[in-house]
Amino acid sequence: KKQAEKAVHQKKEQSKTKCRKARRRHINLVAEFNRRQRKNIWLETHIWHAKRFHMVKKWGYCLGNSPTEKSYRACYRAMTKHCLLQDLSYYCCLELKGKENELLKQLARICSTDTGLTFQEAGCLSGRFEGSLYLYRADRYPEDMLGPVTFIWKPRDGSENRQLWIWVHPALKQDILRELKAIFQCTEPEEMCITEPVTTSVQEEKQVEVVTSLGNKRKKEDKEGEKAVPVKKIIGDGTRDPFQSYSWVSQTTGTSISDRSMEILRYRLIGPLSHSVLTETLKAASVQTV
After folding, report:
1. What is the CATH number of the domain that holds 100?
2. Which residue in 106, 77, 102 sits closest to 180, CA to CA?
3. Mean pLDDT of all residues in the chain?
4. Cβ contacts of 198 within 8 Å, gap of 6 or more
5. In which domain, by residue range, is 156 found?
6. Which of 38-47, 73-82, 217-226 has the lowest mean pLDDT?
7. CA distance 4 to 11
8. What is the three-class DSSP state of 145?
9. Which residue, 15, 92, 185, 266, is most buried by CB atoms nearer than 10 A?
10. Measured between alpha carbons, how far is 165 from 153 in angstroms, rounded to an integer?
11. Which pairs count as long-range contacts for 150-157, CB under 8 Å and 24+ apart, including other chains?
12. Are 45 and 174 found together in one domain?
């Protein structure tokens, strides 16, 4: 009797699970992927890495740690003879906008020429090259080092206003962002990051319930019908709460700081054929002036 009751109970539980075809529908995959990204954000290349790497959860992201196969020799061969691509999108991007003189004046307080090049280096200031340096707390060099960063200036467009992107490691982002807001006196949030909460599986089923009938295509019970396309909801990045401010402005200096993490993808190409790969991949767009 117990075995019979157990068998009936198991059958009821199994009947609730959807078939593989239903689970692999696009709308169900998006809902499932969003649910699994609530605590640790996925990169754009997550699916590719998840099939080939052991994944680890660090700094609010899900990153590939080590390959599942013996690919060290292949990677080394690609670095020395061909081209190797790395996804560095988990690095955080901080955007600064303001007058060039004001930016250089305040940024000089958190770096020093004794450690190498600074934000004022001619090649980097023109926007032709990427620079790297070590940041310190304001007027505290050589003590209280924050960490290494890389930066890129947007090329000049004839105006005194400039745009600067600073790339920092996610473990250093909060400290460096706090120091930048302090030296530029950016306290007022410019805009709020408002994102829709990710719907649960039950809500998703109610919203996009599928009606199946013999000889007819599946249709979604919404306003758009068959033309409805599910959209992936953005739930923030791994180093920022989705309901926090992501842009701040200073009324005294006129400088604004924006958190562009997970908005700008970053890839690193290593190897002698890196430039050849870029020239074959990227094509110049035709600029039309009205």
Report:
1. 3.30.70.1400
2. 106
3. 77
4. 31, 34, 35, 38, 233, 235
5. 92-188+246-261
6. 217-226
7. 11
8. strand
9. 92
10. 6
11. 151/119, 151/124, 152/124, 152/127, 153/124, 153/125, 153/126, 153/127, 154/127, 155/126, 155/127, 155/128, 156/126, 156/127
12. no
